[in-house]
Amino acid sequence: MAYLTLNRTKLKHNFEFLKQKFNENKVAWGVVSKLLCGNRLFLQELINLGVDEIHDSRISNLAMVKKLNPEVQTVYVKPVSKRNVGKMVEFADVSLNSELETIHWISEEAVRQGKKHKIIIMVETGDLREGVMGEQLVDFYSDVFKLPNIEIIGLGTNLNCLNGVMPSTDKLIQLSLYKQIIELKFSKEIPWVSAGTSVTIPLMLTQQLPKGINHFRVGETLYFGVDLFEEKVIEGMHGDVFELHAEIIEMQEKPLLPVGNLAANPQGEVLEIDEALYGQTSYRAIVDVGLLDVDPKYLIPSDEAIEILGASSDMLIINLGKNPNDYKVGDLMTFDLKYMGALGILNSNYVDKKVID
């Protein structure tokens, strides 16, 4: 069986690196755990680092966090559906919101449960995912401030999550100004401007982060050390906290081109034939992981000499050329992962998960 490893030492290094940078910039932050898909073993590793605030988009994952450590502040990071409001209030201390009616439901549920529920109001800043339009924000806040058992602790935004709109100093200053307007109008303090995600970290590292931005929600850069502006690993961080290991289950020398009449494969793809390859062969390995677990485009072979040719539901096909490294059936092949690749693997029940040092 294929298995995924989390390197505890490298994860801790990345965490301490980010913690130092946030402390230097006087910015609070929480760790986004949705990549981990509620895996108890990996969530425990986060908590062992000393993480005191965990964000997730699945209520069941936040329930697992509370089971492991009730003292961790849990944050639900997408608009909650009406049918899940009760469970969300039970397991999330904070939620991100952009619908007034939903906040009314949260208020009613918080009263029933005898809890004070904290919320961050999300503001639309151009990426067109969730968020209240800026011109409606004051009226929106006016209504929310009146609701019982609701405490507004911040306003926030998401960028680069849907249409690829990147954060900029101007957009973040605009968000800080909204906070000032609301505080002045309603004589109420809003502690957080939660405009930072992994994609915003490069602005902080280059001293371009407006002073009003004081809270980040970080996942991808913690796990992959990535600068999402430059699409490269940040100097001083590790990009290989996660690795996939898959066993070779067949190894044969075969023609480079298929033989027979071609039609679409189960993924709807039709192979384009390069006639120059007729008559040529190479060693091809099949490894025990497939599309059911991960899209091959999110896998990066550790051996740069090999090529991923494609995948079926349960098998990945690798071109080894002349097989200079003498791979054999039973050997393990190792792959680094892009974010969406790790997400697929972590959501698969068919791939074991292990912690290593």
List keywords for this structure.
pyridoxal phosphate; isomerase; alpha/beta; 28% helix; TIM Barrel; single chain; alanine racemase activity; eight-stranded parallel beta barrel; pyridoxal phosphate binding; 2 domains; Elongation Factor Tu (Ef-tu), domain 3
Describe the structure.
By secondary structure, the protein is of the alpha/beta class. It has 2 domains: 7-233, TIM Barrel; 242-356, Elongation Factor Tu (Ef-tu), domain 3. Helix content is 28%, strand content 26%. The protein is built from 10 helices and 18 strands. The protein has helices spanning 8-24, 40-48, 59-68, 85-91, 100-113, 137-144, 169-186, 201-205, 220-224, 339-346, and strands at residues 3-7, 28-32, 53-56, 73-76, 94-97, 117-122, 150-156, 192-196, 215-218, 226-227, 232-233, 242-255, 281-287, 299-301, 307-311, 316-321, 332-337, 352-356. The strands form 3 sheets. Strands 1, 12, 13, 14, 15, 16, 17 and 18 form an 8-stranded mixed beta sheet that branches. β7, α7 and β8 (192-196) form a beta-alpha-beta unit. The radius of gyration is 24 Å and the shape is elongated. The two termini are 21 Å apart. One of its GO terms (molecular function) is pyridoxal phosphate binding.
